[in-house]
Write a structure and sequence with these properties.
With 412 residues, the protein is an alpha/beta fold. It is built from eleven helices and 22 strands. The relative contact order is 0.12. The protein binds flavin-adenine dinucleotide.
């Protein structure tokens, strides 16, 4: 076949590999260029490694606090190198799975940095590839902020933080978006003195106001120190001066203030999907964009669920209360502490909140164990215009957290 392909895809993250697999199923010849490791940020530096370390931190915390469940452990040892080893093994297993799927799908994988020459030509490793269509899925990188430039030693990015060989005694996290909040919970679980600085009025600024307020309460309960409406004014000799005049001396700083699209000089005729598109920077959004591009299956972008991991999980979809005009909607709130399952699991903190208009759900905001899965039921209901009366006809299993959704329907 030479170097002629139906589709050339640059970037082997969720956007790129999903596009490659779906195009191949459609009988297209596909070449996929990846300069680093297959799986992209999601698998190698983002979603998966953080959740693996988070899980270890939760096991550690649960082991320390097992006595209330009748399980007493003595001399609990935290071996951070084992945690990293397990994380790396998990990544390797998943990476091999994607590589095998690409191989089985007969996608040609080229390891190297690709360059778009024009709308039909890619150059990589000094070879030219002619492609009828080119998709650019080159992802994003940690945003660099003036005065907080990464030095890989004291001021760390979300990439650098994965390379720690041992846990610090204290950490300052700049930014309380999903990445900052997850890492705050991880370090807190490990017993690291954790402080978060957020420029916005509230933690997790993109969430519903009540979710942000609850997270602030959760942080307080867990002794995670935080400052809102505050930024870093200066960093000098490992001393961090905040805009309120306070000086903090953490062992390290994680700067998690957002991400910047890679290769933003866009070329006409090239299709951009995933983080590089500059739209919602989430793996499931990247996957849906890829499927939309290849299969033509449209999706409702405004109904992309957001999830923040940790205990309790936080997830939301649709409209937030602050987006709706006062008096134009109904609201119901069920406390997780009213659910049997929550008491069995010892996870009673949080709520399930539903916003509705005209007998239909328009937004859902969940702070609860398993929120990452629960939110999907509500996304399906909203996207398919299922009325609240119809949802009341559905049978929810007991004892589950999903019963909270069922109870919430009757309060609307
Ligand atoms: C710490 C962290 C935690 C996260 N957690 C979550 C989460 O829980 N859930 C969620 O949905 N999202 C999460 N994300 C976001 C998620 O990782 C991204 O939205 C997702 O990876 C975007 O996929 P992508 O395919 O667009 O790009 P990427 O995953 O960034 O992949 C792009 C790929 O392109 C390659 N590339 C770039 N330029 C070239 C070139 N010129 N030639 C060849 N290859 C090239 C790169 O090496 C990379 O492998 C997290 C991100 C971070 C940083």
């Amino acid at each position: 076949m030479g170097n002629n392909y139906d589709i050339g895809i640059i970037g082997g993250g969720p956007a790129g590999y999903t596009a490659a697999l779906h195009a191949s199923i459609q009988g297209k010849s596909v070449v996929l260029f990846e300069k680093d490791k297959i799986g992209g940020v999601c698998l190698n530096k983002g979603c998966i490694p953080t959740k693996s370390i988070l899980h270890s931190s939760e096991v550690y915390k649960q082991t320390l606090n097992g006595e209330i469940f009748g399980v007493r452990a003595e001399n609990v040892v935290l071996d951070y190198s084992k945690i990293i080893e397990r994380k790396n093994k998990t990544l390797e297993t998943l990476r091999k799975g994607i590589e095998l799927a690409l191989k089985n799908a007969k996608v040609s994988l080229v390891n190297g940095e690709a360059q778009i020459k024009n709308k039909n030509v890619v150059e990589c490793n000094n070879e030219v590839f002619n492609c009828s269509k080119i998709i650019c899925a080159t992802g994003s990188s940690p945003k660099i902020v003036k005065g907080l430039e990464f030095d890989n030693e004291f001021l760390l990015s979300s990439d650098d933080i994965l390379n720690l060989e041992k846990l610090p005694k204290s950490i300052l996290i700049v930014g309380s978006g999903a990445i900052g909040t997850e890492w705050a919970r991880i370090f807190n679980n490990f017993g690291v003195e954790t402080t978060v600085v957020e420029l916005a009025e509230r933690l997790l600024p993109l969430a519903d106001v009540e979710v942000s307020k609850r997270l602030e309460r959760i942080f307080k309960t867990n002794k995670i120190k935080f400052y809102t409406k505050t930024c870093v004014s200066e960093v000098k000799d490992k001393k961090v001066t905040l805009s309120n005049g306070e000086i903090i001396e953490p062992e390290i700083v994680l700067v998690a203030v957002g991400r910047t699209s890679n290769n933003i000089d866009k070329t006409d005729g090239i299709e951009y999907i995933g983080d590089v598109s500059g739209e919602i920077q989430l793996a499931h959004y990247a996957v849906k964009q890829a499927i939309e591009n290849i299969e033509g299956i449209k999706f409702e972008k405004s109904l992309t669920p957001s999830v923040v991991y940790g205990a309790p999980e936080i997830a939301w979809v649709g409209r937030r209360e602050q987006d709706l005009e006062e008096g134009s909607y109904k609201k119901s709130m069920v406390l997780v502490s009213s659910l049997g399952k929550a008491h069995c699991d010892g996870q009673t903190d949080g709520f399930i909140k539903i916003l509705a208009q005209d007998n239909k759900i328009v937004g859902a905001h969940i702070v609860c164990a398993e929120a990452s899965s629960l939110i999907q039921q509500l996304a399906i209901a909203i996207q398919n215009d299922i009325t609240i009366d119809k949802l009341k006809e559905v049978c929810f299993p007991h004892p589950t957290y999903s019963e909270g959704i069922f109870d919430a329907l009757f309060k609307l």
